[in-house]
Amino acid sequence: MGGGQFLVLKERSYNWSKKVGKSTFVESIDDEEEVNEERKHKRGKARLAMQTQVLAVDCIGHSGGIIVLWKNSQVYSVLSYSHHHIDVLIHNPMCEWRVMGFYGYPNRAERILPWNLLCMLRNRSNAPWQVIGNFNDLLYERDKRGAVAHPSHLFRGFREAIVDCNLSDVDLIGHQFTWFRGRGRSSLVEERLDRAMGTFSWHECFPRTMLINLVAPVLNHNLILLCTDSLPFRQCFRRFQIENKWLLEEEVPTIVMRSWGGFADLDILSRLNVTSNTLFLWGRHLDTALVENKKEIEQEIDRLQFFTDPISCNRFMELRRKLAACW
Length: 327
Known about the structure:
The protein has helices at about 110-120, 150-165, 200-205, 250-260, 270-305, 310-325, and strands spanning about 5, 20, 25-30, 45-50, 55, 65-70, 75-80, 85-90, 95-105, 130-135, 145, 170, 170-175, 180, 190, 195-200, 210-215, 225. The protein is built from six helices and 18 strands.
């Protein structure tokens, strides 16, 4: 996340090595801050990946894993972290605020633990507070479609924790469910496990906030994008570079041979310039076509998410495979 414009927190399983590129990852085991006394006996390894750009904690088995990325180390300071949260303070001149990436406990018998964790962390700072992530829990009955109804006591416990923390939802734009199981079958289940919430003071600081449900091309868990403000237009000028995806196109060798061989009377630098300009213009048209195709696929996927009949579900899965090929 950077500049207070975009915040993207996505739960994934990261297998960090000791060193990747120029970033050094420090492993913390015995001295890791314990933020939940009830889970001492289950405490596992958590790795803190910290230099100036990245903070990450590993998953437990196949569950969890949180990563936060930022551009300016002077703007962000880490308040605390665990296997289920990363709490960061953002030093914005206009509004200093606090953001927490959160991952709820997947085991239903342990659902009270994330509620207690939120309540315990709420007073760590008086700054406007925003929480985003996969809570592995539902707040309202409308957050689930299909299968057995969600237990009412879980609704009640989650709501009470949210009220105690003075948090309120950021409206989700797009499809209202972020996770599904059984697409293409009569047993289809959809739930809204992912959400973003903020305190009243945070909503006052960012009145134009948008939370967008993005299509995930392969996973059964969508991505959510929190945009705290509109992005200013910035024109970028890049030097010419060959894109790897161009090498998959059959016409690339022909384009290079024609542009290079068609100007044999020029010196090498001039021929390189002609060839690069030709590839640049061809690549720009190709990118435009790919973007339009990707946009059309995403729009049809958004439309089909509301249908549960077999034909629509099969078409939905086919489009997801096509979308994965566009990335």
